[in-house]
Write a structure and sequence with these properties.
This protein has 497 residues and is of the alpha/beta class. The chain contains 14 helices and 15 strands. It has a 5-stranded mixed sheet with strand order 1-4-2-3-5. Strands 11-14-13-12-15 form a 5-stranded mixed barrel, surrounded by 4 helices.
Length: 497
C-alpha cells in the first residue's frame, strides 16, 4: 500500500513522500516541510540583501507542503449527516498547505476526520509549488533599491496570479489529467494571498482573527464593541485579550501574565478590525467594512481562508414598509442581489438560502436582549427579503426601484448584506443578517442629522448586544458542528471544512 501511494503521488510531482497513519504525525511533517522552505527562502534573501546574487544560478527550492489521500470505493462512507470531513467519490485527492503555526488545529481536525471516515492513511510530501517570496518574508519588498528590483524579480519566486483564483470554491475547477482532485477550497498560495491582504486592510495580523465574525457598516458599532471589550478584559474571565489596529494587545490580567504591546497606526486602515480573543480562537472579531458591496466582498474574500464558524452582518438599512418604525430590526430571510460584485463568481441564478441555525439564534437573541415575547416581537422585528444595492443614492431612482422592490417583496434596502451572505454561501461560511431601520425614504423619513444622532444613541448598543448574544447562543448552546450546514455543500465538495 505504501509503495502504491508513493508511486501515485511521486508521479504527480510530490517529493519526499511519507505515508502517515495519524493526524498528529501528518501535521508535524507538514510543519517541518514548511519551516524548511521558509529557512531556505530566508537564507537566500539574506544573501541577496548583502549583494550576493547566487540565488540567480538555480531556482530556490522552497516549496509548499502537500497533503494527499486516495479513497477507494470500499473506503467510501456516504453518511448523509456529514457536511464536511468526508469524500463522496473514489479517487486521488490533494492540496497544498501553508502557515501550519496558524492552522495546525484546523489541519489536525480535518485530517483526523478523513482518516476516521475512510479508514485510510494520508500522504505528506513536498509539492512542486514554490513559495512566493513576499508570502514568506513580509519585509522582502520594502526598501529595495530600484536597481536591485529586477534582480530580485528574476531570482525569487513571486506571486503568480494566473495560479491564484477561486475556481475550486466557485465549483468551476476541473483537474487536468494526472492531477489530484481538490481536498480543500483554497490552495496554499490563495491562503497566503488573503492573509497578506487582510493585514493590509485591517492593520491586524490574521492570527488574531477569531472564529465568530461581526461585520458592520458604521463606526459607532465599533465604539460600543471597544467599550464592551475593554470591560470584559478588565472585569471578565472569558476573554484572554483585546486586540486593536496596530496589533495593540490589552491582556486580561485575570487570566494571563503577558504585558500590553503594540503601537497604534498613524492612520487608520481602510477596514479596521478588533479582536476579543478567547481560547481556541472562539472569541469575536469585529470589522468595520465601511459602506458598499465592494468592501463587503473584499474583506469576506480574505476572511474566508481563516475558516470562521460564521459571520454576521449588523448595520443600518432603509425600511420599505409603512408599518416599520425607526429602530425596528430586520432579520433577513432572503436577499435580492442588486450589488452585482459577485455576479461573475456566483451567478445571479444561484439561490442564497437562509441558514436555519443562524436565523433561530438571531431571533432568540432579539428576544433575550429586548425582553419581547410571542407576538410582541413582531412589533420590533420583521423578517423578509433585504435588497442590497451598489448605488448609495438609490432613492433618486424612485419610480424604477419602487416597482422592482415591490416585486421582490423586499422589506429593507442596504448595500452590504446580500454580498456578505452570497460570499458566505460561496465560501461555505455560515452567515446571517440583522439590520436596524435608520430611515424610510419611500415614506418621506430620510436620514437627517438630528434624527440620526438620536437614533444612534438609543439603538446601536442594543443592536450590538443582540449580535454578541447570537454568537453566545451559537457557540455555547448550538455548538459549532451544528452550525455548518449541509445546504452550503456541493455534490463534489472538497472534504476540508
Amino acid at each position: 500500500m505504501n509503495r502504491h501511494l508513493h508511486t501515485i503521488f511521486s508521479t504527480m510531482g510530490v517529493r519526499d513522500v511519507q505515508v502517515l497513519n495519524n493526524a498528529d504525525d501528518a501535521v508535524k511533517r507538514i510543519s517541518e516541510i514548511y519551516d524548511q522552505g521558509v529557512a531556505i527562502m530566508r537564507a537566500a534573501f539574506d544573501r541577496f540583501t548583502v549583494g550576493d546574487n547566487g540565488h540567480m544560478r538555480q531556482p530556490i527550492d522552497a516549496c509548499y507542503p502537500f497533503l494527499g489521500i486516495e479513497v477507494g470505493t470500499e473506503n467510501l462512507n456516504l453518511d448523509n449527516r456529514l457536511s464536511y470531513g468526508a469524500l463522496h467519490d473514489p479517487g486521488v485527492y490533494g492540496t497544498t498547505l501553508t502557515r501550519p503555526s496558524l492552522f495546525s488545529d484546523y489541519y489536525r481536525r480535518q485530517i483526523a476526520l478523513l482518516m476516521e471516515q475512510h479508514d485510510t492513511s494520508v500522504v505528506v510530501g513536498i509539492s512542486n509549488r514554490r513559495m512566493p517570496l513576499p508570502f514568506v518574508i513580509e519585509e522582502s519588498t520594502a526598501d529595495i533599491r530600484q536597481d536591485r528590483v529586477a534582480t530580485l524579480q528574476a531570482g525569487f519566486p513571486l506571486p503568480d496570479m494566473s495560479e491564484i483564483d477561486d475556481s475550486i470554491a466557485n465549483g468551476t475547477y476541473r483537474p487536468d489529467t494526472g492531477e489530484p482532485k481538490p481536498l480543500a477550497l483554497f490552495t496554499a498560495e490563495r491562503v497566503d494571498y488573503s492573509l497578506q491582504r487582510f493585514h493590509h486592510y485591517t492593520a491586524t495580523k490574521p492570527e488574531h482573527v477569531q472564529r465568530f465574525i461581526l461585520l458592520t457598516n458604521y463606526q459607532r458599532y465599533v465604539e460600543h464593541f471597544v467599550e464592551f471589550a475593554k470591560g470584559e478584559i478588565q472585569n471578565g474571565n472569558t476573554y484572554q485579550s483585546f486586540v486593536e489596529p496596530g496589533d495593540v494587545v490589552t491582556p486580561n490580567k485575570n487570566l494571563v501574565s503577558t504585558h500590553p504591546s503594540g503601537v497604534p497606526p498613524h492612520h487608520m486602515p481602510q477596514m479596521p478590525a478588533y479582536h476579543l480573543v478567547a481560547p481556541d480562537r472562539m472569541g469575536v472579531t469585529m470589522v468595520n467594512i465601511g459602506v458598499g458591496p465592494s468592501n463587503a466582498r473584499t474583506i469576506t474574500d480574505h476572511l474566508a481562508v481563516l475558516r470562521p464558524h460564521c459571520w454576521l452582518m449588523l448595520g443600518h438599512c432603509a425600511g420599505l414598509r409603512r408599518s416599520q418604525q425607526l429602530g425596528d430590526y430586520v432579520l433577513a430571510h432572503g436577499y435580492a442581489r442588486e450589488d452585482h460584485v459577485l455576479d461573475q463568481d456566483l451567478p445571479p441564478f444561484v439561490t442564497v438560502p437562509p441558514i436555519a441555525e443562524i436565523q433561530v439564534a438571531l431571533q432568540d437573541a432579539v428576544v433575550n436582549i429586548t425582553g419581547l415575547q410571542g407576538r410582541g416581537i413582531k412589533t420590533r422585528m420583521r423578517t423578509g427579503t433585504v435588497a442590497s444595492t451598489d448605488n448609495r443614492n438609490w432613492e433618486l431612482r424612485y419610480d424604477e426601484l419602487y416597482e422592482r422592490l415591490n416585486q421582490q417583496r423586499a422589506i429593507a434596502v442596504d448595500m452590504e448584506s446580500a454580498t456578505i451572505a452570497a460570499n458566505g454561501f460561496r465560501f461555505r461560511v455560515p452567515y446571517g443578517t440583522l439590520l436596524c431601520v435608520s430611515d424610510k425614504p419611500l415614506h418621506g423619513e430620510i436620514k437627517l442629522r438630528g434624527m440620526a444622532n438620536a437614533f444612534y444613541r438609543e439603538r446601536i448598543n442594543q443592536h450590538l448586544q443582540i449580535g454578541l448574544e447570537a454568537i453566545r447562543i451559537l457557540r455555547d448552546d448550538v455548538g459549532v458542528d451544528q452550525i455548518h450546514s449541509r445546504k452550503l455543500r456541493s455534490f463534489d465538495e472538497p472534504a476540508f471544512r
